[in-house]
Structure formats: structure tokens, C-alpha cells
Amino acid sequence: MTEPLSKVYLEPVRARLARLRRFRTDPLKLDWLLAGLLTLGLELEIWLGSGGAHERLVTALLGPTVTAALAVRRLYPTSAGLTAGFVAALISAVWGPPSLISWGIAWICCMYALAVWARPRRFALGAGAITLALLASAAGPARPDSLPFSVITLAALLLTHRVIGDRERRARMAERERDVAAREAIVGERARIARELHDVIAHHVSMMVVQAGAERRVLQGGNASTREVLQTIEQIGRGALTEMRRLLGMLRADMDDPLTPQPGLADLPTLVGQLREAGLPVELSIEGDRRELPLGIGLSAYRVVQEALTNALKHAGQARASVHVHYGEDSLELEIVDDGAGAPSSRSGSGHGLVGMRERVALYGGRFDANRNPGGGFVVRAKLPTV
């Protein structure tokens, strides 16, 4: 059966929109571009417009300082605002506020930077200095019409600082809190990975100690040097196990981690069965020559699948999921896909679950990718080296 026309035509559009959302323009470069365009437009307005020769000359020389201040307004908002304010006051003292579109846009952008991005104390000093300069330019009898402009400027600065500035500061504070939460999640996940890897390493060291001790006991009396080497290996291994138990005790302080064997790829069918019982239909497929992998690789692969399926169960809604495992010659590839329509905010790349998966894959030098499908749903891919 053919697909609906709406799906055929809308899916490419959705894919393009998704790519556009990932495209982010550097705000600093955008300010530089805008400053250059406004400088060019300002000069054209001055020399192609009307006005006295002296006024045009002064505006042509001083105007670019305002458009240039626009280029650095994000880095130096107070300086940009003061530059625009003082130049406007100087020109207004003789000819009145310039009636130029390019000038007005640059001046407003610089005033916005002062009101929104400057620190409170610097904003207060800057706004006061600009207001005094504008009032001084309006004090003379030649330009009494500059007084309303000064009052309106001060009122606009205060209102913008109060409304938009507070919102911007709250947004920056929320962003810092998210960064702190993300760093805490990474630290917590690394501690969890360390606890799990301890169990894996302890298993290997225990096997070394047991085999060295067993071999030492069955050696004949003529192999004294070999027996001594094996005894040394056994003693060092037991010492390493003792220190690792102390380390584990420190890592598991105030934690409720069960002392159970760590899972691996052989436990994926059990995991899939548990998810099915919880209400998420899951299909599992395994390709390639199955072979014994390092325990750490198997554990990381299991945790990636577990976290991806748990996210699908929580956020995908009424959905189906599939898990594909491929044994390559020198790698293990995982792909977990669901067709749900969960909220984008809950499936974004900033989630702590994705942080944990990314940390586990990076531990072994692998590649990790998690994104929404253009046609709907979510896909998680991981590739772990096995050699």
C-alpha cells in the first residue's frame, strides 16, 4: 500500500527543518556583519541625503564609532552603550538627534546591550552618564527639542533593564544550573562505571590468584624458582584485591548498589523480556559471529541498551522498539530504535541518561550518536572496539 501523500511530501520538509535547527550562527560574527552593513548604509544615507556640509562631515566621521561599537557590544556592553550615548549627545547638541535609519538601528542595539548585558552597577553608572550627557546637549537654547529625547531614552533603558535584563539574567542562571547538573551527572555516572568495572577487574584478579595458587601447589619440588614466582603473583594479587575492596567501599559509600554479578550481552534476552512485560514491545536481533568479549565491553554494551530502552519506555509513549547487535571483526555495533512521539525536550541530547551512555562508550574509545529520526522516533547508535 502506498504511503499517504502528506507523509511523502512533509518528511523531507521536516528533515530540512531539523538540519536548520542544528545550524547555529555565532552571535559575535553576526554582530560584526551587522556592524559592517550598517556602517556602509550610514555613509550612503549621509552623502546621498540632505543636510548641511558640516553636519554631514561630522556625522560621517563620528557615526562609524556607533556602528563599530555594535560589533563588540556582547563583549563590552557598557563601553558600547557609553560610546553610542556620548556620540549621540555630541551631535544632538548642535544639530539634534540624527534622523538616519542605520544610525538609529546601531544606536538602539548598543543601548540594548547596555540595558540587558551590563552588570547592574555598570548599567546604573552608564545610564546616568548617558542621561546627563543628553540633558547637557538639550540645555542650550538652540536645541530644546532634545529634552524629550533624553527623557524617553532614560525611560526606555530602565524599562528594558527591568523587563528583558531580568529575564536574561534568569536565563543565564538557569543555564549555569543546567551545566552544574550535567557535570554532577557526569561525575555520578563515572563513579557508577568505576564501581561496576571494579567488579569486572576484581573477577579477573581473583581468577589469576586462584590459578597461581593452584599451580603452585601441584608443582614438583624441583621447581622452586617457579613456585616462588607463583607465590609472589598470588601475594600481589591478594594485596590488589584487598586494596580494591577498600576502593569499592569508598565508591559505594552511601550507595545502595547490590552486590550482584555484572550483566553482559548474554543477559540481553532477559532485559528485553522485562521491557516487554513493562509494556514496551521490543524486537532483538543479533548478527555476526558471536564470541567472548572483554567483560567491560559486554557490560558497557548492556548498559547502553538498557538505558536506551528505559528512555523509550519512559518518553516514547505508545511505541515499539528494536535492538540490533552486530558482531564485527574488530568492533561491536549497537542500534536501538523506537518509533514513539515523545516530547523532544525529554529526548534531547542533554539528558543524564544519554550522558551515561556517552561516557561508557567514550571509556573504550568508541563512537556514540543519539538523535531523533526525521520520520519520528528516536535512534541510539554505538560502536565499541573489541580489540
Number of strands: 5
Strand order of the largest sheet: 1-2-3-5-4
Please report the distance between the alpha carbons of the first and last residues.
45 Å
| Largest sheet entry | 5 strands, mixed
Radius of gyration: 34 Å
| Percent of residues in beta strands | 5-15%
User: Which class of secondary structure composition applies to the elements?
Assistant: alpha+beta
How confident is the prediction overall: mean pLDDT? 78
Helix content: 55-70%
Description:
With 387 residues, the chain is an alpha+beta fold. It is built from eleven helices and five strands. It has a five-stranded mixed beta sheet, covered by helices on one side. Strand 1, helix 10 and strand 2 form a beta-alpha-beta unit. Helix 4 packs parallel to helix 6, helix 6 runs antiparallel to helix 7 and helix 7 packs across helix 11. The N terminus is likely disordered.
